[in-house]
Design goal:
The chain contains 17 helices and three strands. By secondary structure, it is mainly α. It has three domains: 192 residues, MFS general substrate transporter like domains (Growth Hormone, Chain: A), CATH 1.20.1250; 57 residues; 218 residues, Growth Hormone, Chain: A (Up-down Bundle). It has a three-stranded antiparallel β-sheet. The chain is globular and about 60 Å long. The N terminus and C terminus are likely disordered.
Length: 489
């Protein structure tokens, strides 16, 4: 059955006539650049930081604290943005991020750094998803896809630039400046968005679902901590993992009960009444499960099995990042011509093919062939990023666009977090069974990629039922900003 899904650009709280898209876009790009850089820039600075602050046993928590708070807070900020307006909530997120950056740069202990990174991650939970939400608000459908693709490409390139930039800044200025450098860019982003994005305060006094937000974040942190506890080797931490999962399930059940009784729930359960939105969320979760956990092991394969140097193995990620950038831009250009389903299936098909190729690698695999596989995988991932984000926005009501965007990002992030831990457990189990050495590592990694390809294949099957909806081109139905296609039900 053909349906029309409204995609108006106005929200009850925004005065669209005074918004200056060029200023807003520049500010959002700066904010996106900061959030993406801070996910990876600390990787090359951490050895120096550990020598300076000590606390080597807490090394992994510098990354985990950022990841946990960013993932858990993402849907909360999306809901708040729908209630209080994009600009206010985005700027609060930026203030938290910059405050965490200053505190991280001033840290004199590893514990202080971990707490500062948690504050950074809390702010980052607003920066990334709300950037894509605001773009959906201020641009008409025929330009929205292109802008989503551009932003996704910048996100990819910023992640690529993080490690070398972190090493350069640490070597020339000191590790503190890996965090202090956020300040000028962040302040510039605040000025641009404050002056460019106009919003009016709603006359209705909104009610914030504080209990729901706190219980939800607590449940997600419990689940994510279970992956941290079991990510390296499951057996010694089995009791802790199970305890955290049980606590997470209890809190999640309490959250559902709170939301059903709330007059203004943080996460309206009706959002999942749209079959197409549920399918997009499922695809995002499965996509995340297979993506980060598998790709993170390829540089290690290049060094352990192929004998590549650290610099060469690091450079191998460049073809993947280039592929991701090209895929993001291509998806943005094609969203008014091809359905979300076609683009999603294409991206997932490329991922499945590349993962199956990775599962066959051995000592005879050459560096050029590995780089080609990474480029193909990156192309598929690049297509999926903006496509799933835009589809989630269009399969929800305009008043819930911020929540829909952040929920999609949340499912992908949760999938990535669990994927890293699950695939890490599989790799370590294989190494324990086969022993050490390049051949054992190669065989164990083959299992990892077969499982990752299974996740991607399951996502592809789910994508088959997404329907034929797409972004409208200006000439379609008068160009009134609608999506025409099949409901996916």
């Amino acid at each position: 059955m053909d349906v029309l899904i409204a995609s108006t650009n106005a929200t009850p709280e925004r005065d669209a006539g005074k918004t200056r898209p060029a200023l807003v876009s520049a500010g959002l790009l700066l904010g996106l650049l900061l959030a993406a850089l801070d996910q990876t820039i600390v990787t090359t600075a951490m050895p120096t930081i550990a020598r300076s602050l000590g606390g080597l046993d807490l090394y992994s928590w510098v990354f985990a604290a950022y990841m946990l708070l960013e993932t858990a807070s993402t849907p909360v900020f999306g809901s708040l943005a729908d209630i209080f307006g994009r600009r206010r909530v985005y700027l609060i997120g930026m203030a938290l991020f910059l405050g965490g950056s200053v505190a991280a740069g001033l840290s004199s202990s590893m514990v202080g750094l971990i707490l500062s990174r948690a504050l950074q991650g809390l702010g980052a939970g607003a920066l990334m998803p709300l950037a894509f939400t605001i773009i959906a608000d201020i641009f008409p459908p025929e330009r929205r896809g292109k802008m989503q693709g551009l932003f996704a490409a910048v996100l990819t390139l910023a992640s690529l630039a993080g490690p070398p930039l972190g090493g350069l800044v640490t070597e020339m200025l000191g590790w503190h400046w890996a965090f202090f450098m956020n300040l000028p860019l962040g302040v510039a982003a605040v000025i641009l968005i404050w002056s460019g994005l106009a919003e009016k305060r709603s006359e209705r006094r909104p009610q914030v679902d504080v209990a729901g937000a706190l219980v939800f974040m607590s449940a997600m942190i419990a689940f994510l901590l279970s992956t941290v506890a079991g990510g390296k080797t499951l057996a010694p931490d089995l009791f802790l993992v199970l305890a955290l999962v049980v606590v997470g399930c209890i809190l999640l059940g309490l959250f559902v009960r709170i939301e059903r009784r709330s007059t203004e729930p943080m996460l309206p359960l009706g959002l999942f009444g749209n079959a197409s939105f549920v399918l997009v969320s499922m695809v995002a979760l499965l996509f995340g499960l297979g993506m980060f956990g598998s790709i993170s092991y390829l540089p290690l394969f290049a060094q352990t099995v192929l004998g590549a140097s650290p610099s060469v193995s690091g450079a191998l990620l460049i073809p993947m990042m280039v592929g991701m950038g090209l895929g993001s831009m291509a998806a943005g250009l094609l969203m008014t011509r091809l359905s979300f389903r076609v683009l999603t299936i294409t991206g997932l098909g490329l991922m499945v093919g590349s993962f199956l190729f990775f599962s066959t690698m051995g000592s005879g695999t050459g560096i050029p062939l590995l780089a080609m596989g990474l480029a193909i995988s990156g192309l598929g991932q690049g297509i999926l990023g903006p496509t799933l984000t835009t589809a989630a926005q269009e399969f929800s009501e305009p008043g819930h666009r911020g929540l829909a965007t952040s929920t999609n990002a949340f499912f992908r992030s949760v999938g990535s977090t669990f994927g890293v831990s699950l695939l890490g457990v599989l790799l370590n189990a294989g190494l324990r069974a086969r022993g050490e050495g390049p051949m054992a590592f190669s065989a164990s990694l083959s299992t990892v990629f077969l499982v990752a390809s299974g996740f991607a294949a399951a996502a592809l099957v789910a994508a088959l039922f997404m329907g034929g909806s797409r972004l409208e081109a200006p000439g379609d139905l008068g160009g009134h900003g609608t999506v025409k296609g099949r409901s996916g039900k």
